[in-house]
Each structure stands twice: as C-alpha cells, then as structure tokens.
Amino acid sequence: MVQIVKNNTSRPVTPHGILVEKLGQITEKIAKGESIQEIQTIVEDAYNLAAGLEPYISAYTTSESPELAELTRKTASEDWSKRFEDRETVRQLEQEMLSGHVEGQTLKMFVRMVKAKRVLEVGMFTGYSALAMAEALPDDGYLLACEVDEYVARFAQDCFAQSPHGCKIQVKVAPALETLQNLVDVGESFDLIFIDADKREYIAYYQMILDGNLLAPGGIICVDNTLMQGQAYLEPEKRSANGNAIAEFNRLVANDARVEQVILPLRDGVTLISRVI
Ligand SMILES: C[S@@+](CC[C@H](N)C(=O)[O-])C[C@H]1O[C@@H](n2cnc3c(N)ncnc32)[C@H](O)[C@@H]1O
Question: Is 3.30.565.10 the CATH number for 66-275?
Fold first, then answer.
C-alpha cells in the first residue's frame, strides 16, 4: 500500500520546494489579513520561480532538429477544433498533445541509454516523440507507432518523409489494444515502449505489455502524463476521468512486484518502469 507523506519539516532546496514554501507563506499572510504590500514581494518571487523554470530547462537542453521544429510549427498551425467539429464520435485532438522539445530530447537520451534497436510507441499524434526517438535509433533501428486516427497518422507520415530518420518509423493505424494483441501473438518484443495514448486504457496497455512479454529483457517502459496536471495526487472529487485513470494506473504500478518504477516530474510527469521479475 502506497502512503503519501507531505514532508514540510526540512529546509527547501529545490525550485519546487522553495515555491511550495513561498505559496505557504502567502496563504498564511492572507489568513492573517496582512496587507497586499506585505504579500506582493513573495507573490512576485513565487511567480518568477515558477515561470522561469521551463524556459530555462528548454534553453539549456540540446536543441531540436529542424525537422522536429517544422513538425511542431505545422502542428501548431492546424486548427484542430475545426478539423474534428463535424465528427460523430469526437476524438479530441489538440496541439497541446505534442510532447515537444524537452520531453522529446529526454526520450532520445533513453533510446541511446538502453541502446534500443526496437521501439514501440502507443499514441503517436503528429509524430513528435516518434521522430525524436527515431533520430536516436541506429540506422537498422525500427520504431512502430500505434495511432487510431487516420488523419493524424497521415499528417505524421508527411512529416517523417521530410526527415532522414523517418524511414525507421512504421505506423499502424488501429486501436492500440488490437495492435498490441497482434504483436503479442507473433512474439514481438521492444527495448523501449512509450505509452501516450488513451489514459483510460493505460492499465490495459501495461498489463498486455508485461503479460504478453512485449518488453525485451533490460528494456524500459516510459509512460507519459502520469501526474495528469496534478490530479494524480489531488482529492478524488477534484479529478477528471483521466485523472482517476492515471491515479489508478500509478497505484497499480506501485503495487506490482514485477517492476521498479520512478515518476520524473518532467512536463506532465513521465514514469520509467523496468521489469525486475
Ligand atoms: C497525447 S497524444 C500522443 C502525443 C505524441 N506521443 C507526441 O509526443 O506528440 C495521444 C494520441 O493517441 C491517440 N489514441 C487515443 N486513443 C488511442 C487508441 N485507443 N489507440 C491508438 N491511438 C490512440 C490519439 O489519437 C492521439 O493522437
């Protein structure tokens, strides 16, 4: 059983810890009815600390390739709401789904660290993370990307065609669970698996990957959005359906003796999972 302990006794020494301390001071001062002037400096400090973090990380992370920058630009220039407004089953797609520079570079580093030759992506969207990982694969490396939406699959493939690494990517357009089952049936395995599709299916993807031996020995699973905008650790009443699904997924992984895992507070949370049994 996982227990969450809020530790507020030690001196904060990280940007996040200092931010928490400052927000705590602000809350206390407001409760005491202190004047806005008393509070303003701490609010400004807290804002600068929070607002500066991601731009700083991005500025000091290796730059993305021109092809990834172009894919981002193309994704941002598409009016996704308009594209899908007339559909019967609206599968909401939006440019914010794209993982982007820092997460893409992190995934590239993971591909190199595990010396991956075979990568599986579950949930591709316009292909940012797929292309980022493909850039780190060796020439004989291979990435299979699962995507259910035909339009984004074509969009991504057009972008891959502009990159010297795009030929390493194969796209399977189908519900991911169907594709995973087919991969299990033919005995495939992957050195790195990136899960980033339907949050409510995360547990099913995870079980199929572990039970079906889709993860090669020494391989890692990376799972995106495992903080889900902070909902993972908020009270259940404050969670959306996706927030609940992620909280349940995190609980399941934490209680699974077959694996070791760590949640990295990168972007919306990325969990790394390796199989130990
Ligand atoms: C968050 S986006 C992926 C972002 C992408 N990994 C990136 O870094 O840019 C999730 C994608 O999963 C797809 N998806 C949702 N449910 C799916 C399913 N059941 N099977 C396959 N793909 C699915 C959506 O169409 C969407 O394109």
Answer: no
Question: Which residue type occupies 209?
Answer: I
User: What are the respective helix, strand and coil percentages of the chain, to the nearest 5?
Assistant: 50, 15, 30
List Cβ neighbours of 149 (8 Å cut-off, separation of 6 or more).
Answer: 91, 93, 173
pLDDT, tens digit, 9 for 90 and up, residues 62-99 = 999 999 999 999 999 999 987 765 555 446 789 999 99
pTM for this entry:
0.96
The answer, yes or no, to whether any atom of ligand 1 lies below 6 A from the CB of 104, is: no
Q: Where are the domains of the chain?
A: 15-59, 66-275
**Residues near 193 by beta carbon (within 8 Å), at least 6 away in sequence:** 119, 120, 121, 122, 209, 214, 215, 219, 220, 221, 222
Please say if the pLDDT value at position 221 is more than 70: yes
State if residue 180 touches ligand 1 by the CB under 6 angstroms criterion: no
In the three-class reduction of DSSP (H, G, I as helix; E, B as strand; rest coil), residue 85 is classed as coil
β pairing state of 190-195 and 142-147: unpaired
- Find where tokens 């220039």 sit: 77
Closest ligand 1 atom, CA of 99? 8
Q: How far is CA 130 from the centre of its chain?
A: 12
